[in-house]
Design a protein that fits this description.
The complex is a heterodimer of chains A (about 425) and B (about 325). With about 425 residues, chain A is α/β, with parallel strands linked by helices. Chain A has 19 helices and 13 strands. Chain A folds into two domains: about 160 residues, Periplasmic binding protein-like II (D-Maltodextrin-Binding Protein, domain 2, 3-Layer(aba) Sandwich); about 220 residues, D-Maltodextrin-Binding Protein, domain 2 (3-Layer(aba) Sandwich), CATH 3.40.190. The longest helix of chain A has 26 residues. Classes of the chains: A alpha/beta (about 425), B mainly alpha (about 325).
Chain lengths: ~425, ~325
């Protein structure tokens, strides 16, 4: 009896071990059982990869792809913990432009794509985009560029008409060659229709102004903290804060739930819109607003806001296959298709100068020739230098502007407090 | 109970054990009685050791270092992090917010739960329905609750401001004002936990002997009087239990205020001026947004000590109040 019991127990233990080791095999993504290589891609918002992934799988029967979508903020926090923990990251991860400098600091956790020949691809991208994804004078290739966010300004035609402003997008663009002109237009608008906010949030105005400067919070030369000396920072902050002080902004957090509600209620007339924001505006405003929004040129020189990179964490089991997939997804042919599907602007001149792209119009935005508008501003684009601690300093200034909008602080107090806090964070 | 059982078998076994075989079975029984209880509870302590004690000690170790989330240990710094924390205005702000939110949400919550339980304890029609109903808010995902409450408290198009407007009160910027944000978040916490505590109280109240109430009624005591003089003292241990668990929960408040922040987890610092940033939110900001794991671990340990102190104080106060009542 006891012997048979022991025997049974031993059998059970062996069975459990066998099952768990089999499971471990599957979890380790070696995929020996099915003979397939399993790749995962971690992205946020809409990269437009759904159909492309299916196509790639069809063309490569040995590869199985899983797409993981998380909110942008969570995506980067998660990625940081996964890199720290040494496991759990997807085989390919998207990194947003505002965060790429920070992850560049931890490049030893990523595969150097140059090892797989990525340097040969350099010519595909507009040079600044390629450079943002590299380190060590271009010898370390961290990520391949996906889209970019050249800037335009979206406005509501019906609200402009009510305020006696022009509605034609060419005319509207001429209203504001500079941001000062934009602020002046805000005054004209408020004088006529005081109950409607001119712009959704001062935060995005400030962000757009700063994105048109060559340097922001950190020096291009040595990554040192210069926010307290850089007049672009203080000027931009004050300009945006004026709108907040005069209550000409909706004072909503950008892209938040409240922002969506404000869009739906048509409670503001303009918003800064990088190429990728068109989809967000359309989703928030809903179908009943079709044809009411339009796209005009942004004040100031061209600037870039957003856009991402695909990187391959070292912890993945299939760096070679992951690289091949990332290379394919970021190739001009695919970038063009993504633009037509989601509006994410290609970061490769071959793609954004392609007639297919430049001829694209957006029906929702009153048939605006978005291909032309964004490609044009892509050409004149001056990318801002992102410091390694940019993503840590940025929220400090956003909070300061929010305090001005909420009437909690004067512009100068808010800016002084922001400088003090930023100094601590940048240390 | 265990000792009683052990003594009983220990006393009876030698009387019958004459042969060696019986002796051996007696030894086995004794082993069984003496050690089995430990073996049975051992898994808990093993699991606790791995998932509770080890992280606790490891966190203490991390807090003594300059430790970056991704890049790891950057060198031993001793108690530097602790010294820095005590001089950190943001830490004291977060501690104040945590205590304020705790008092605002827990005191009314437990009183309301007590009242709710007293009502449920009386023979209501459809008892099961009501009892299940009060637990419902607790079952709903906190993310969903936070989303709904953030809408209710919207500045421009929120229902609460609309209702206030009907009685002539100007719209309140719930996310911007300190007191307003605390009230809004407390209401969210109360919504989630009042029913849960009410059910715990109800369970305790049902074991209070009915004849005590009947005797009190005969003596001419009012319902109110018999509630405070009989019911509350009888369920004292349960009240102490809920006070302790609410303290631990309240001091670690995180999800409700974090999701109430329109900036979300990315840039959220508990409002534009840290109006409603709690200790755990500050821990999260330092550790997972600024990647300063060492400092974050320090906050975790100080929080642990704060919880111990506050729980101790609450326990003493609650015991005194309940015994006087």
């Amino acid at each position: 009896m006891s012997k048979s019991l022991a025997g049974r127990a031993a059998t059970a233990v062996v069975a459990v071990l066998a099952v768990s080791s089999a499971a471990a095999c599957g979890g380790g993504a070696s995929g020996a059982d099915s003979g397939k290589v399993k790749l995962s891609i971690g992205v946020f918002s809409d990269f437009g990869y759904d159909t492309l992934v299916k196509e790639y799988q069809a063309a490569h029967p040995t590869i199985e792809i899983e797409q993981r979508k998380v909110k942008m903020e969570q995506h980067h926090t998660q990625l940081a913990t996964q890199l720290a923990g040494g496991r759990g990251a997807a085989d390919i991860v998207a990194i947003e432009e505002g965060n790429v400098a920070q992850f560049r600091q931890s490049k030893d956790k990523f595969v150097n794509l140059a090892d797989y020949g990525a340097k040969d691809l350099a010519g595909q991208w507009t040079p600044w985009k390629w450079n943002q994804g590299t380190a060590d004078d271009g010898n370390f290739v961290l990520g391949l560029g996906t889209d970019m966010g050249s800037l335009a300004l979206c406005y509501r035609r019906d609200l402009f008409e009510a305020a006696g402003l022009p509605v034609d997008r060419e005319e509207v663009g001429k209203l504001w060659p500079t941001w000062q002109d934009y602020v002046a237009t805000a005054q004209t608008f408020t004088d006529k229709t005081p109950n409607v906010k001119f712009v959704d949030t001062a935060l995005n105005v400030y962000k757009a102004i700063l994105d048109q400067a060559e340097e922001g919070y950190f020096a291009k030369a040595d990554d040192s903290y210069i926010a307290d000396k850089n007049t672009k920072v203080s000027d931009g902050f004050k300009l945006a804060a004026v709108l907040g002080e005069k209550k000409q902004t909706g004072a909503v957090a950008p892209f938040s739930q409240e922002w969506n509600v404000a869009l739906k209620q048509a409670s503001f007339a303009t918003t800064t819109c990088p190429a990728w924001a068109l989809a967000l505006i359309k989703a928030g405003a809903g179908d009943e607003a079709a044809g009411k929004w339009d796209v005009a040129a942004a004040p100031g020189a061209g600037g870039n806001w957003g856009g991402s990179f695909l990187a391959v964490p070292k912890q993945g089991a299939h760096p070679k296959e992951a690289y091949e997939l990332a290379k394919w997804l970021t190739a001009p042919e695919q970038q063009k298709r993504i633009f037509k599907e989601t509006g994410n602007l290609p970061s490769e001149p071959v793609a954004y100068k392609d007639p297919e792209v430049t001829a694209t119009v957006n029906d929702f935005f009153n048939k605006a020739p978005v291909g032309q508008i964004f490609a044009a501003s892509a050409e004149s684009l001056q990318p801002t230098y992102r410091g390694t601690k940019d993503s840590k300093v940025t929220p400090v200034f956003s909070n300061a502007l929010a305090r001005v909008e909420q009437g909690k602080q004067s512009t100068s107090d808010a800016f002084a407090q922001a400088l003090k806090e930023a100094q601590d964070v940048a240390k | 109970m265990t000792t009683g059982h052990h003594q009983r078998s220990g006393a009876s076994a030698p009387l019958r054990s004459t042969s060696g075989r019986e002796n051996r079975s007696w030894a086995l029984t004794r082993f069984d009685n003496r050690y089995t209880p430990y073996l049975v509870i051992a898994p808990f302590f093993v699991v606790f050791g791995i998932f509770g004690l080890y992280p606790l000690l490891y966190t203490a170790w991390v807090s003594l270092h300059d430790w970056q989330l991704i890049d790891g240990d950057q060198g031993f710094t001793g108690l530097d992090n602790y010294a820095k924390l005590l001089g950190d205005a943001n830490f004291w702000n977060a501690l104040g917010n945590t205590l304020s939110l705790f008092v605002l949400s827990t005191v009314p919550q437990l009183l309301a739960a007590l009242g709710l339980a007293a009502v449920l304890d009386r023979g209501l029609r459809g008892r099961l329905f009501w009892r299940a109903g009060v637990l419902l808010p607790n079952v709903i995902s906190v993310a969903a609750v936070a989303l709904v409450f953030a809408q209710l408290y919207g500045r421009d198009f929120g229902v609460v401001n609309h209702l206030l407007g009907l009685v002539g009160i100007d719209p309140v910027d719930w996310h911007a004002e300190t007191w307003a944000s605390h009230l809004a978040i407390s209401s969210m916490v109360m919504w989630r936990w009042t029913g849960y505590n009410a059910l715990i109280y109800l369970a305790a109240m049902q074991s209070v002997p009915k004849d005590m109430h009947e005797a009190a009624v005969l003596d001419g005591a009012s319902r109110w009087r018999s509630f405070w003089s009989i019911t509350v003292p009888s369920i004292r241990p349960t009240i102490l239990f809920t006070v302790i668990t609410s303290t631990i929960g309240g001091m670690q408040l995180f999800v409700e205020p974090q999701l109430f922040d329109p900036g979300g987890t990315a840039t959220g610092t508990g409002g534009s001026d840290r109006q409603f940033q709690t200790l755990v939110m500050y821990l999260y900001e330092k550790g997972f947004r600024l990647f300063d794991a060492g400092y974050s671990a320090t906050i975790a340990w100080v929080l642990f000590l704060v919880v111990l102190v506050v729980a101790g104080v609450n326990f003493t106060v609650a015991r005194r109040i309940a015994s006087q009542g």
